[in-house]
Amino acid sequence: MTTTNGRLLWVDDEIDLLHAHILFLENRGYAVRTASSGLDAAERCRTERFDLILLDENMPGLSGLDTLQRIKDVQPDVPVVMVTKNEAEDLMDQAIGSKIADYLIKPVKPSQILLTLKKNIHRREIVSEAAQTGYRQDFMQIGMQMDDSLDWAGWTDLYRRLVRWELELSETESPMAELLQTQKDEADRMFARYVRRNYENWLGTADAPPMSPDVVRREVLPRLDRGRQVYLLVFDNFRYDQWRALAPDLSPLFDIDEEIYCSILPTSTQYARNALFAGLMPADIRRLHPDLWTDEEAEESKNQHEAELLGAQLARHRRTEPFTYRKINDTAAAAKVLDELPQLARGRLNVFVVNFIDILSHARTESRMVRELARDEAAYRSLTRAWLRHSPLGELLRRLSQSDCDIIVTTDHGSIRVKEPLKVVGDRNVNTNLRYKLGKNLSYPAKDVFEMKRPERFGLPAPNLSTTYICATGSRFFAYPNNYNHYVGHYRDTFQHGGVSMEEMLVPLAVLRPRKRPESN
Question: DSSP characters for 76-107?
Fold first, then answer.
């Protein structure tokens, strides 16, 4: 018969007794083939392809588990559902260890069979339809929420909702993903208005959202006060959606508390990460620690004094315990940290700066092959997740999950995929970042940027009296008129940071506590 639901093989030495079940499935559009022994089942699998196999565990001759292995030799990807009267735990463990798709106890009901078919054959279509229906229902509510005069809590809630739908729709390749992207773009435009209205007033006020200079004071110091051992992992250029993609791999190992904090502007390493480690806004770092601040025009690294800045912050809070600082730029550095873990475990505070995601972002800009691998946000998240699963850093987290410690996972800023070029003109001393500029004689369309004409009021250093900072908003990026088309073609559709967007400013901060803690003696 013609079928649209799937091809099934039911293997049971008493197959004649299952006629009513088979008829039930055929009436629902399934083509059902049968076999009365393991040998017959293995032979059928050599000549026909099946979408799912129902396999009796207790058969004369070749057992269900032995039959399972022969089936997997021929059709390794076919879902196999074990059907048995035996509820012994060791048998369940063997079956699950052999990667069965499901486990049914006899006598089975037609509704149980139908459920397992939906889970194993139709799961993708059902999940896709549910995600599309859910987002369709939430679409209007999100739109109305954006129209409100949102505060910080409202914006973080809205961003979480958008990211949740982005992850769900991307897993199903839903055509509604394009509608969601349009809604995200609109949210970013409105978020930029929110930042324009409030950012200056946040600095130095008690009702400000948590920002980069607050991270160590709010999250690290209280834990040290309670006698906890703390590992601080700062992932450079780490977006909230990437964190949400990684979290399912970590949740079996850790109890996780998650929040979103606000990266300062410009959302770049020189400003945001130095502020995180110093516990100060950039202007205060330059004023109080001029030897630890590097101006834009200097050629040396802008983040070479992070350990000293952290030490100065701890001293300012009268903390005397030593700490370690490691920068992890590659696999060799991560492997070295693993080797040093027994020594690090004796310290109270260990800090790691992890640069893989930022390196991936830059490689994507310069390499066509990497851009193909990380062609969009979903692929970018997938690469990040694969890296953590298989890198020494993933192993580091797995080992720490066996200890009694607090692990803080966060970042200095996120990034956004840029699409729309914005012409800017400046002298030769203007910095090269695509999402923010500073200089004396900048020419730009003021309505499309967030401008800071008096940098000191925004906590930023001013190399000259007439210095202005500008940050691109939404998915715009700055381009010079000279060689404009080549420049735009090279940088459009790359991930950049430094500007004003939810993706860059609303960044994750998660506290991980191991679920399996060592027993006390």
Answer: TTS-EEEEES---HHHHHHHHHTT-SEEEESS
